[in-house]
């Protein structure tokens, strides 16, 4: 039986959830945006109720999928707001516990940098142009997104890569026909799975 890898991209607003087998076949792709009603005034109570919604969603959709591994993208704590960072860490911990309770699996974690690096190794390139537009005479070591402009939309690049691999995916657009945030959360969850597969089954390191 082929191993099945569940990948999660977690934020307090939306969780992208991808399920792939070890041969990179896409088995399922969903998202959940938990919104408890009525919305609690206490932020911690809101997180508890959101986590309950997520638990029911995972139980209903993935309990009997014979999942072998669960990989979670580590929260990117790039906010200057300590309160926001703490909330994200707490929610991440709640979802991790839910994963253990449902699947009896201790989730593994990967940074967003490593997720992108190992999911799509071709994104590692030496920079040829400086921020000011000057050519670099002697390119240095490969860096993630080195072949793109400095201000490139990294989430869009990952979405494009995932779309190329899985053209059958139906993405979510808003009323202005612009890709929704949920689509990027979903593509990030696929990248999480791909990175694990490349590291553990394809020896890409």
Could you walk me through the main structural features you see in this protein, from its secondary elements to its overall organization?
The structure is a single chain. This protein has 5 helices and 7 strands. The chain is of the alpha/beta class. The chain has a domain of 141 residues: Nucleotidyltransferase, domain 5 (2-Layer Sandwich), CATH 3.30.420. Strand 1 and strand 2 form a beta hairpin. Helix 1 packs parallel to helix 2 and helix 3 packs across helix 5. The radius of gyration is 18 Å and the shape is globular.
Q: What is this structure, in a nutshell?
A:
This protein has 205 residues and is an alpha/beta fold. The chain is 40% helix and 16% strand.
What is the β-strand count? 7
Oligomer: single chain
Q: Which stretches are low in confidence, meaning pLDDT under 50 for 5 or more residues running?
A: none
- The CATH homologous superfamily of the domain at 4-123 and 180-200 corresponds to Ribonuclease H-like superfamily/Ribonuclease H
Average pLDDT works out at 93
Q: What profile does the largest beta sheet have?
A: 5 strands, mixed
CATH class category of the domain at 4-123 and 180-200: Alpha Beta
* Computed structural class: alpha/beta
| 3D shape | globular
Query: What is the terminal separation in angstroms?
Result: 25 Å
CATH architecture of the domain at 4-123 and 180-200: 2-Layer Sandwich
Strand content: 15-25%
Number of discrete helical segments: 5
The largest beta-sheet arranges its strands as: 3-2-1-4-5
- Percent of residues in helices: 40-55%
Task: Predict the CATH topology of the domain at 4-123 and 180-200.
Answer: Nucleotidyltransferase, domain 5
Elements, N to C (H/E): EEEHEHEHEEHH
Estimated radius of gyration: 18 Å
